[in-house]
Design a protein that fits this description.
The chain contains two helices and four strands. With 96 residues, the chain is of the alpha+beta class. The N and C termini lie close together (5 Å).
């Protein structure tokens, strides 16, 4: 069994409040969940208006599949018309 973890640091340049940030993140996380069937949550930068960190987790029996799913999630965030900019991301595959 393999667990893939992806941490994505986002910048929300047009955001002016925590309420606005929550609305944008809720939209992003629900669309990622529905499209890729992965676990996703805000994991850091909770009180910062224009930055967010989300964590994405995928469990599979194949390293390559896990990496492909997480890479497609990052591409989805990059290519979608969300009002966010990816500052950095990291993917880690853990064999269990």
């Amino acid at each position: 069994m393999n667990v893939g973890v992806c941490k994505v640091h986002l910048r929300l340049p047009e955001n002016a409040s925590l309420k606005g940030k929550r609305q944008v993140l809720k939209s992003i996380t629900s669309r990622i969940r529905n499209k890729f069937d992965v676990a996703v949550a805000e994991v850091d930068d909770n009180d910062v208006w224009q930055q967010a960190t989300i964590g994405i987790c995928c469990v599979s029996n194949n390293n390559r599949h896990t990496n492909q799913v997480l890479s497609r999630v990052v591409d989805f965030i990059t290519n979608s018309r969300f009002d966010v900019e990816i500052l950095d991301y990291e993917i880690e595959i853990i064999g269990v």
